[in-house]
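Our consortium's second objective concerns turning raw sequence data into structural hypotheses that experimental partners can test. To show how far this objective has progressed, the report includes one record in full. It was chosen at random from the queue rather than selected for favorable results. The single chain below, 243 residues long, was entered without modification.
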Amino acid sequence: MKKIIIVTGASRGIGKEIAKTLAEEGHTVIANYNKSEKEAKQLQEQLQKENKEIEIYKADISQEKECKEMVEYVTKKYKKIDVLINNAGKDKIQLLTEVTKKDWDEIINTNLYGTFCMSQKVAKNMIQNKAGTIINISSIWGQIGASMEVVYSISKSGIDGLTKSLAKELGPSGIRVNSIAPGFINTEMNSALSKQEVQAIKEEIPLQKIGESKDIAKCIKWLIEDEYVTGQVIAINGGWSIT
């Protein structure tokens, strides 16, 4: 069944692959972006050539007003929102002693508040419809913590807590809420690492390989089709962390 799906941070990396996969599955995708307009337009053009239903929408999810306006636009045009994928996020590698209030605000406001705010705005429509799916993209670092990524780790851990809380609160309204916690994924975010550093990480992973964005997109597809999984944090990391 065709669904109306919002994917935040959909212009690059994991978000782009999610949007592409879901559009190719026949769903209507609203691909959110903030600064990467060129990449968002390229994605839209590519999928429209394949006669897939996708539109792009510029919004900074760290801003409540922009979250509200995006959700209102989608509900007015499509009358409902079936699925929300909270993927947009920011990271900054730095020592604890170097973290400024600005660094904290940028990461927490986008990763954690943005996920909360979008979920809050979309939930109102889903509650009315007594149905919906919210999928949050957290991180392995939200589960086990990362050196020199303390604020990022805090934000992702918070997303997992938010996921579990919303699953309990929204479950009686027929809304399922889950998190996916990727491990090391082959994206631009990790492109700054040297071949030696990537190889060292591979050697730590039981499957001896790094993940691809399509691995996350496949799980998203399954979670949308599923009817009974909620409140879970699904680790996709090749066995890098087994808890």
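The partners drew two points from this record. The longest strand covers residues 175-182. The beta strands are 4-7, 28-33, 54-58, 83-86, 132-137, 175-182, 233-236. Both points have been shared with the crystallography group to help prioritize constructs.
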